[in-house]
Amino acid sequence: MQRWKRELTRRLQQVLVVVVCFALGGQAFPAFNTPNSVDTEGNTCPLADRSGLNCPVLCVLNIEDCPDAIALHECAANERLCDDGECHRSCAEVKNPCLCGKSTTKYKACAAYGKTVTVKNYDSGIKEEQIELACMRQWGLVEDNAAEGDGGGRVDLTVDVWAENATAAAIWGTCPDARDARLTFTENYCLAFYAIVAAEVGLFLLWHIYKRLRESAVVGSRQLCSPEPQQQQQQQVGALAAKGADILEDRKDEVQSGGSSSAETLAAADVFGRDRRLTAAVLPGGMLLMRGFDSNLVGAGLYWLTLATTCGWMALLFVIVLDVYGKVRGEAAYGLLASSGTSMAVFIFVWHITALWMVVVLLCQSRLRNYFRIESPLADARVVQVEARRSAAVETEGVENRLTAWVGRISAKLERRLLLDVAVESCAVERVVAEGCGKWTVLEYHSTRYVLSEDTGCFESHAIELGTTSTQLLRSSGGLSRKQVLERQALIGENLVQVAVPSFGMGMVYELRGFLYLYQLMCMWVWFYFNYYKMACVQLGVILASAVVKVVIRQQSERRIKRLAERRSGCRVLRDGEWAHVDTAALVPGDVVAAEDDMELMFDGCVLGGGAVVDESALTGEATPVRKLPLPSGNSAFDIRAGAGRVHTILAGTRIQQKADGADGGLATHILVLRTRTQTDKGQLVQRMAFSEGTGAVFAGQQRVAMAFLLAYGGIGFALSVWLMGHDTTAWCYGVFVVSQVCSPLLPAALVVGQSVAAARLRGQRLFSVDLPRILLAAKVRVFCFDKTGTLTREGLDFFAVQPISCASVPTFGSETDEAPSGPVRLGLATCHAVTEADGRLIGNPVDIEQFRAVGWQLVDGADTLVSPQGDETAYVERRFVFEHARQSMTVVVHDGDGHVHVFVKGSFEQVGRMAAADSVPSDYATVAAGWARQGCYVLALAHRVLDADETARVAQMTRAQLEAGCALAALVLFRNSLRDDSSAAIAELRQGGTRTVMVTGDAALTGVYVARQCGMVPLHTRVLLGAMELQQKHTDKPQLIWRDATTDEPIADLDGLLAEEDAAASCSTESRPPVELAVTEPAFQQLRASGALDGDLLLRIRVFGRMTPQSKAECIRLHMARAVTAMVGDASNDMAAIRAAHVGLALSAADASIVAPFSSAHRSVGACVTLLREGRAALATSLAAYKFLINYATTMSMLELVQFYFSVIVPQAVWISIDSFITVGLCIAVTQAQTARTLAPSRPTARLIGAHTLASIWGQTLVNISFLYGIMGLLFRQSWFRCNEFDSRDIDTVRWWLLGDNYEAEIISLVCLFQFINGAAVYNFGYRFRRSWYTNYLLVALYCGFMAAVSVLALADPNRFGCLFRINCGNTDVLRDLGYSASSIHIDDYNSPIGHNVLPRQFRWTLWALCVTNVVICLAYEKLVVLGPVGRWVRRWWLSHHGRSKLQLIL
To answer: Over 60: is that where the pLDDT of 297 sits?
Structure first.
């Protein structure tokens, strides 16, 4: 115990010494031990002999006094003896080494001694005297037993030290240390440098003053506008005016990007006041700030001067580095800057100035060009700077903690202060001249044209509105005149969404402009300066390779978007009354285009005449061809986005499979162009993908914190390096080495490479992605929402039965039948649909097709004439009102063969029951219909009435509401919808994978409940409560939300109390019991949403959302997104709004490559959901593994450098090159090749770069590695063969780092850290739950085994050529022979070591190898058993039991 206390006291004293030394200063010398002071027994080390030492020059007054060993008495006939002691043809250019830079000395040099000497008991403190004495002995000037300080053995020759006024017969030619040549900083090139810098500073100051004076008169010239077209902007002018002052005063009140705001300017309106200037600091989200600039010749010159100055600073660093290598003035090093000390001081100064200059340039790069222009009114501008607030990154639930939130707030404030949260783009202003129409001033921003208004002096985007009713649109059927086309082309621009993909070279330039690359470049300058050019070249290669990977990945994505966006073809257009062939890029709203088979549309339009069958799979994901009908002749309302307008609308990106000329009475199929460019749905999608700032990585917030930690860690390493290597400029360079290793150049690529690998695997399974960052987001999905029909169930519906309603005195239900009963019901089933025929194939809604097939009728002459199977009945559809989601019904007007006119209404049983005549609705109507729905039937209702003679006469003028009024219920139409084969398995795997599944369907809620039970989304015996809006007797005017048991229809009085009781019972029960599930109808959903009830936990208790419109589906998805990362999968156009709104949207689309959603699967299978989540989780886990591997590399490398700096040694250069160029790069690539797990794990991979799990993994490995490194170094100091043979840096200039590796210390550090570097990849290759077992990563296994074998050979083998390449277990040839090793094949430079080798004893080699293997095993065991294994799981359970759960708890 006493010994332990003494040891602890001694260690504490050592720590105190460290602190004191650090405070007072230090040198490149171990702080805790003096090299070669004592041996393992505590005895003073004997001084060792030192061989291979060179003798200094001997200078004599009389050349005859030179000893015979170094005398040269005769020269060749044509040569003469010169003052350097050698024979030359001419002595004119020969320098006398005895002068030592003086011209008064008369000494001449003896010949150089061609041999080396050995010094006994070499002492570095008196090494000069020892070497001189040994040389004198060798030359016979002294006796062998003479000691240091004795005079010479010859009385007539006394050797003295060199002195300028020496009088001795002989002196040593060891010149005194000359004072370093000093730079006076008044040299011509220095004066030129001062003049250039002063001139530039003066020019920039004068320009700034001039610019401010010129721009002071330009008040109110900046424009705040919305990217929405002008018509939409004007709707909210007043709203923005009311908020204008608040926007300027308080950034927190900014307008959110979700809404469209009006266009307002400082000049045109007094919203913000003329005495205030709009700046990016007060720019609201979703708005654009436009500032006009005019060119200036002086400013342009200063801009190019700025770029030249940037290059000049880099060139200056390059010149200083070349000067170190003697490439500036001849072959002499420091020929320009006089000495190493001055050179290093100048380099460090220029390095800091360059770094500061580059940081400023990068911060201002998007605004730099316009700074050197003069701001002007927009009407006079040649360039407009457009500024937009960047959208916030998507953060996954459970990622943020207090630390990340704190760092995030600081980062956000810094970004706002430096305006880094504002995207800036300069757009050239063009003057467009349309012959005979006028002139316009325009600019293009994100493929949208903005036109300068002469009235307001502001830029506005335009949308040509052709009308909102069918009558208004039909007026445009005559096409446009040439003048109209030219005017509209000037206002809207070319019909193309242009996606610019930079060349590879420009892509590299854009990539390398980042701050991380600047950091790495500045570190590389230090490496080059420090004669570390080989490793600097390797590191630069790694940096460029990382940049190339990122650029290639980005360009692949951009080219994919470009292929989808920039499609053009020819078409026939009606202009000036004649048909002409034009390019689709020349189309404008109002053009009339002739439809052609297999024609792909590049615009949004409506069908004027005829009809068409189109394929919308590339845009909407709808695999079934869709029939498009011509606009009706009445004055019905038209909305291109919703309602009845959709059946007449053909969207950009769709393809016409077959036109139907004459479908409406002989007219050809013509399409009216309504929207072009970015005003189309496809254009807006492409615009968001091509010009958005990205969805934000799951690492966004964590990355800032991780970088802050790395920089802090690097700062600590820098400080320790400066202390360990001495407080001088050399130590500064070594400190930069540590900092440069902390942040690997591979780190940026490591965080995204996983998503690229996953994207390739997804493509192999025909699951495509156009937004790669969302692959990592898919890993964090906690709620997966499903459409029902066509997604969970098969695409088609099977006709099941018809249940007619008897309209006697009391309406009652008849018996269901699988055959359509004769009479109005059969006529309604045969005609109430939108089915058409093309190439013998029925086209239309799958429900309509199945219904039509069930009655067996046939289409004749298009879709409006129908004949019964027997041919005895004929019907003609005079008017057809297509299905609308808002009305949940469709209506047709039919003439039968007897001259009667019928009106049929078909739709959801709830809607038709509400609109039908009350006396035709059976009393048990809702019960019967709900009963069929509970059995999984798709239930529709059919209503009917016959028009009287008066109504028949004016049927063409009657509105839809008038036609539907008074219809009587006729029947329930029932369909069956079977599950897909893999739906149940997919839902089960998602539940097992910890993902909540939700159904969001347009079908009845009860049908949704039935399907949910069938697929396992709701357990079979679980109680389900259905919420619906019902009319109560006391409140007949206003429906109320009523909850009922979905099975028994029993009302629930207190839902909250029931749920609380069920939750309490479930928590107390030892048996697993399913919770109560909830389902709601669309009206109930809207009621709950309006009341705020869905803001709490109720939303996440609802399993089925029924009768949801497309808009309601999107609203439901957004509500879920506010609580957790949410995915949505669907198959049809009515799901697209929800799919695009979700964090992760998946469309089951027949198109192999589409812009349907971020993800689209050509396999129409729910299993794609599971595949996407598996690949996403594997990608996130892989990216995090690569990140941890590189952080482990950084900590191990910094630890290595600090240890080697402590001993003032440097591991051999070959080891550095192997680590940075082969081991790190190769293993980092191999880590990303881990295979995806076959099943979903019950949890998601962490996205916390600094979370407890990640830090435990990284720092646990680091501590284990540090312990073994320090322990092995301690073991080394216990070896008798090592003590007294330690490396003593006092005899070496630490600037010459390449002389610091030929020793035992550097060798041991190299071997231990090589094992640790390699093992880091294996540690993070463990599959855990999201990737397969480690041995399936064949590339990593091969590299790991190969590298481990190679390092083992280095550690264990006797001296050989391979080991000598790394200068490990090797030495000088003669020394190796003396040690008994064969050295015939070894040819290396001599060792910079007193003993001439670093060969470890065989026994110690095996001991060292065993310890390194133990280190490897412990690291693997720690990761497998502690971090990922039972220990980690126990710690997690303990933490949760004591601190609770911070994550949102979901009912799976």
So the answer is: yes
